[in-house]
Amino acid sequence: MKILIIGGGNMGLTFARSFLATHIVIAENMFILEKSIEKAEELKKQQIGSIHGEPDNYVSEADLIILAVKPQDSRELFARIKPFVDPQQVVLSIMAGVKSEDIAESLGTKKVVRAMPNLPAQIGFGMTVYTSSNEVTRIELVTVQNLLNATGKAIYVEDEGMIDAATAISGSGPAYVFYFMQKLIESAVSMGFAKSEAEMLSYQTFRGAVELFNKYDFTCQEWIDKVSSKGGTTEAALNKMQAHTTGYHFKEGVKAALDRARN
Ligand SMILES: NC(=O)c1ccc[n+]([C@@H]2O[C@H](COP(=O)([O-])OP(=O)(O)OC[C@H]3O[C@@H](n4cnc5c(N)ncnc54)[C@H](OP(=O)(O)O)[C@@H]3O)[C@@H](O)[C@H]2O)c1
Fold it and tell me: What are the pLDDT tens digits along the chain (263 aa)?
């Protein structure tokens, strides 16, 4: 299977490296189109496939074209590659906010898969939500699912609107987690821990909680109840957070991400 990745940035390279590491694709069948001359030169040293600065016939030969440029660069990209895109090719876009219909119209193909991955895909712990147009066959969709699984977990949704929801939850989500980790680190430092100790306390607490959640079949509320005792320290913290409607404000923040994704 020949794969063309357009955009050799964070996400494009994450995909390329994951496909190679899991042996789903060999370097001889990987093509990367990268506009930036400096980046392209750097990529050529890395043996992750053939690196190109301009679209050409190799675009038409790819079984799958992955669009991994910033949404604001999509118009220019569509104009550059359209002459080489075959209507039967499957196009997988990970660009936030660019609709399947827009991609299909701009490139003259009906086979469009839209996916929303996230940053932990870099280490195989990604979460991707994806959807596809009706013209993508079952076999093509299984191929895409296998590729996405190389970067972590992937779930399919029928409704394209859920891609915007996934952008707000799992796409932006790692930043929310880092935000909470940062606040816990700042609190620990203000209480007298050295920064390195504070980072370890925060990291190991998050990791431990996530592993517990993974291992046993309890809800988050059940875990909160297990940590808290009547009149204790955890209850004091949670009461204070509730009095400041922290949970409400957090959800409002996530909603702002959804609004931005939709617009
Ligand atoms: N980063 C994330 O966590 C994340 C999560 C989910 C989805 N996404 C989506 O993934 C996409 C890529 O994000 P990223 O963080 O990987 O961006 P990035 O690091 O900026 O990579 C994009 C690359 O594409 C190049 N490029 C721009 N126009 C091009 C063209 N016409 N032909 C070939 N290459 C072109 C850019 O070159 P220049 O630098 O010269 O412009 C840049 O090297 C975005 O649409 C984003 O919405 C990202």
Answer: 999 999 999 999 999 999 999 999 999 999 999 999 999 999 999 989 999 999 999 999 999 999 999 999 999 999 999 999 999 999 999 999 899 999 999 999 999 999 999 999 999 999 999 999 999 999 999 999 999 999 999 999 999 999 999 999 999 999 999 999 999 999 999 999 999 999 999 999 999 999 999 999 999 999 999 999 999 999 999 999 999 999 999 999 999 999 998 88
Per the structure, the complete domain to which residue 24 belongs is given by: 3-171
Q: CATH number for the domain including 7?
A: 3.40.50.720
Boundary-marking domain end, from 145, 171, 197: 171
**Closest protein CA for atom 18 of ligand 1:** 9
Torsion over CA: 237, 209, 203, 195 (sign) = positive
As for ligand 1, residues whose beta carbon falls within 6 Å of it are 6-12, 33-36, 39, 68-71, 73, 76-77, 80, 94-96, 116-119, 171
Q: What is the DSSP letter of 155?
A: E
Number of domains in the chain: 2
| Distance from C-alpha of 101 to C-alpha of 104, rounded to nearest angstrom | 5
Q: Which residue from 11, 55, 14, 10 is spatially nearest to 33, judged by alpha carbons? A: 55
Report the predicted TM-score, pTM, of the whole model to 2 decimal places: 0.92
Do 102 and 21 belong to one domain?
Answer: yes
Degrees to nearest 5, angle at CA 127 with 122 and 129:
130
What's 221's domain CATH number? 1.10.3730.10
Same domain, yes or no: 151 and 180: no
Q: Which two tokens stand for residue 215?
A: 């291992």
